[in-house]
From TrEMBL:
It catalyses: ATP + protein L-histidine = ADP + protein N-phospho-L-histidine. Residues 11-129 form the Response regulatory domain. GO terms for molecular function: phosphorelay sensor kinase activity. SMART domains: HATPase_c (SM00387), HisKA (SM00388), REC (SM00448). PANTHER family: HYBRID SIGNAL TRANSDUCTION HISTIDINE KINASE C (PTHR43547:SF2), TWO-COMPONENT HISTIDINE KINASE (PTHR43547). Its EC number is 2.7.13.3. The keyword Zinc does not apply. It comes from Spirosoma foliorum. This is histidine kinase. Keywords: Phosphoprotein.
Length: 373
């Protein structure tokens, strides 16, 4: 079905086998923001309805040759695509209850007797136009709610994924503190303070992320706050609170820019890429590098690692849902679900950018993503 409706126009299909009746009815009902389609038979009416999904009301004559209005209404109401269109029967036949009830049984929402009373006809059509507009507004609201729910589902996964690394670090630090309590002579005071400081910072980091998620759950995309974000400071914080093992160094080629953006989303993209660089690094001396290039309307960030790399045939598919690289490092990595990069791609594209990777097996990977200023 196609839509011929533009803007706020209300489309009415007039069905009558007499041309003069069609012209008179159109002249009676014509107002701004109304569009009229006309059919002179039941068959033509059915064809027009199936080709135009924007029809909001059908004014349907009952007495027509070949196929009467009752048959047309029955066919429309039996089709899932057309069953919700309002139908007003227009008829010159008997006002007896049996005819009126037959019309309602076939799906009519109202009944007008010829000759038509101009004021009554206009008033009834106005009512059905308002009802149609209320229905369209409700439909748009439901679609908007569905989009928000889908966004929320994505972010619930991403935030849960992102909370895992600092939480693992906190658990590790707590385990070391527990060992220190059992064997005080085996640990220096400075180390003890370092573990406590890291745990405290990671806890604040996770609390901020949870608060951001709660804020997100209450707001649509357009309502989410845009704030000034020092990307250098953000990257340093992420690198520290991911608790990289001692054999992996994280080098930031800064200073990275300051952007007015939605902080949570940029944080999630950077954390996902840095976390993957740590998780999938198979070198005895691992290196992760973070940098950027500045363009007129956007910034191009990169996260480079010297890990196991990705085969060329898989580089175009790893951003697909549930798609994982098949090399040994990633295939056996804990929590490799194939979902993270897919959601990362959606996050970047929501900001109007794109993400891609250049990689060579055993030499490492460089992930690039664009972020609008």
């Amino acid at each position: 079905m196609i839509s011929n409706n533009t803007g706020n126009e209300f489309t009415i299909l007039l069905v009558d086998d007499r041309e003069e009746n069609l012209l008179a009815l159109e002249a009676m009902l014509a107002t701004d923001n109304r569009t009229f389609l006309k059919a002179s038979s039941g068959g033509e009416a059915l064809r027009k309805v199936l080709k135009n999904e924007s029809i909001g009301l059908i004014m349907l004559d009952v007495q027509m040759p070949e196929m009467d209005g009752f048959e047309v209404a029955h066919l429309l109401k039996s089709n899932p695509k057309t069953k919700d269109i309002a139908i007003i029967f227009v008829t010159a036949i008997s006002k007896d209850e049996q005819y009126v009830m037959k019309g309602f049984d076939e799906g009519a929402v109202d009944y007008l007797q010829k000759p038509l009373d101009i004021n009554v006809t206009k008033a009834k059509v106005n009512v059905f136009e308002r009802l149609y507009r209320y229905q369209q507004e409700l439909k748009q609201s439901l679609q908007h709610i569905e989009r928000i729910n889908k966004q929320l589902e994505k972010f619930v996964y991403v935030v849960a994924h992102d909370l895992k690394s600092p939480l693992t670090g906190v658990i590790g630090a707590m385990s070391l503190l527990e060992m220190a309590a059992e064997s005080p002579a085996g640990i220096q005071q400075e180390e003890l303070l370092e573990y406590i400081t890291h745990s405290k910072e990671a806890s604040y980091y996770m609390a901020n992320m949870v608060n951001s998620l709660l804020d997100y759950s209450r707001k649509s995309m357009d309502q989410q706050a845009v704030e000034e974000v020092d990307v250098q400071e953000l990257a340093e914080q992420i690198a520290k609170l991911l608790f990289p093992p001692k054999h992996i160094k994280i080098r930031i080629h800064g200073p990275l820019p300051v952007l007015n953006t939605r902080k949570l989303k940029l944080q999630q993209v950077l954390q996902n890429l840095i976390s993957n660089g740590i998780k999938y690094n198979d070198k005895s001396e691992g290196l992760i590098e973070i940098g950027y290039r500045d363009f007129t309307n956007h910034v191009e960030f990169y996260v480079r690692d010297n890990g196991s790399g990705i085969a060329s045939g898989e580089q175009s598919t790893i951003f697909n849902l549930f798609q994982k690289a098949s090399n040994s490092a990633t295939a056996t990595a804990e929590s490799s679900t194939g979902v993270g990069l897919s959601i990362l791609k959606l996050l970047v594209e929501e900001q109007g950018g794109r993400v891609w990777v250049n990689s060579s097996p055993q030499e490492g990977s460089t992930f690039y993503f664009e972020w609008n200023k």
